[in-house]
Predict the structure of DegT/DnrJ/EryC1/StrS family aminotransferase.
Amino acid sequence: MPDGRPRFPFARPDLPPPAAWLDDLQLSYEQRWFSNGGPLVRRLEGELARRDPAGGRDAVVVASATAGLVATLIALGLDGPVALPAFTFPASAHAVAMAGCTPVLCDVDPLTWELSPAAAAHAVREHGCVAIMHVRAFGLCRDLAAIERVADAAGVPLVVDSAAAYGGATAGREPLGRAGIAEVFSAHATKVFAAGEGGFVLAAPELAAAVRRAGNFALDGLEVTGRGLNAKLSELSAAVMLAALEQLDDVVERRRATAAALLAAARASGLPFTLPDGIGQPPWQGLPLLLPSAAARDGALSELRRAGVEARPYYAPGLQRTRAFARCADEALPVTDELSERMLCLPVYSRLEPGELELLAGLLTAALTTTKEEHGLSRR
């Protein structure tokens, strides 16, 4: 690393080049319509909805997944506690707070790494939660029937934060977007569906209309109908998202191949690690591995850093350990603590130069082999 930068950074954004989307902006320029639901935004919403016609949901594009979560919670008319996992990126809890609700942080299941149905049910009973927010950790694509049953039994809506998961599918090859009352996705530069910034919400038509209204300052004509925000997407961002959508299937295929090669390289090291149960068919924004101990995780991070590979801990610390959200959990969350101390997340790329994958895999095997030997670990 002669310039101080890793050979393999944690994220290597791969957005469509300008040539793929500049021509699409001609109509926006002709109409001088650059925001507030312009022609490209409307076209993008139609194409996103058509990608899963069996889902029966409309798409509402938004400035970010966080804005989409806020607009969805506002559209549902919620006011009160919302249960969500502590093992997640801070945006999930920020969205709850920005929507005027109170985050109630819950523990996750040790086998799935996602919100524990039992913990969510407990939060609804003990705290009177008015909704549940499930987060697809690392963009994994499991069946959410168990958490849906909890929400249905409690009579509260389930909102699914699928920020990192677009392009994935369940084990039964069903595209994402049908779970809960709404699913929210990101098009941030670091995501697989990468457009710089942006996102979208998939929901039934009536709720989608309410989300769109909430994201436009809660305006209905000249009437302000309630709480709202500016969650609108510009035509320029819509043009990039349209181009990203065209290349998405190819990008996901390449990332899955890269993730498979890195998994094979990790296994070749002999260092024990685990993956969660029932992951479906993720698009692999990153590759998370749960190592045997916090010391092994920290050792692997150091070895990879020396090799020029920027791996990271994830999601660490758990939100209940942060200053902003420390008061949002009234009990210990041992699984969240354990996962955040042992989780190693590896970079996965959409595009690699010839020979790069072999080099990255070799560096990974060598670093994890050294970690195994230094900590006296071996696969049983």
